[in-house]
Amino acid sequence: MLALFIAVAPLVVPWMFGAQWEPAVVPAQILTLAGMARMISNGTPALVLAAGQPRALLVFNVYRLVGLGLMVLAAAPLGLDAVCAAVAAFEIFTLAGSYRFMLSRLIGVSVRELLGDLGPALFASAVMLVVAFPLTDVVSTAELPTPLTVLIVGALCAPVYLVGLRIVSRAAWDDVILIIRRVLIPRRWHKAAAPQSVPAGG
């Protein structure tokens, strides 16, 4: 969904906040990358605490505070787009660095494993964006209401993402199917589909 936002941001941002916010489209698109990286790294504190290393978590948080502040100060004279790019770069670097210098030592999770886990989603998102950008331009020419345009683009791009995911990783595909079944299919259907146990001696 974050990747899709990059394609539809030129429509969504002015519609949601007004035409005066159109200059915020590019910064919002850039910050989407930061959001992706931060979403993945949000589980780091819990992992570090579970490993019994609160001091390492404190050092990590201090690094975040000081490092992000310095990045913003350095980029501020260059404008808003530069600040957003600096924040995105900081979040991506922090995600990789947390695995390379902290999680690999504490719980044995390497950057290679991180890339292996993220690879299918990154590939599928890139493929979807290749379709989403021109598709957004085409659908927007119909001058439909913005929410309807976004729904159409999303509905047409979702299968592209899923096909890309299936091509690259069967395991990732199975995870998505499991989530769909658990979230969208009523629980009573799960119970009905579950195999019935046979009584002993029956």
Please provide a written account of the structure.
By secondary structure, the protein is mostly helical. It has one domain. Helix content is 81%, strand content 0%. Helix 1 packs across helix 2, helix 1 runs antiparallel to helix 7 and helix 6 packs antiparallel against helix 7.
Q: In one word, what is the shape?
A: globular
- In terms of DSSP E residues, the strand content is under 5%
Radius of gyration: 21 Å
- Average pLDDT reading: 88
Estimate percent helicity. over 70%
Explain briefly what this protein structure is.
The chain has 202 residues and is mainly α.
Q: Topology, please?
A:
Elements: H1 2-17, H2 25-41, H3 44-50, H4 54-75, H5 80-106, H6 111-140, H7 146-168, H8 170-184, H9 187-193
Features:
mainly alpha
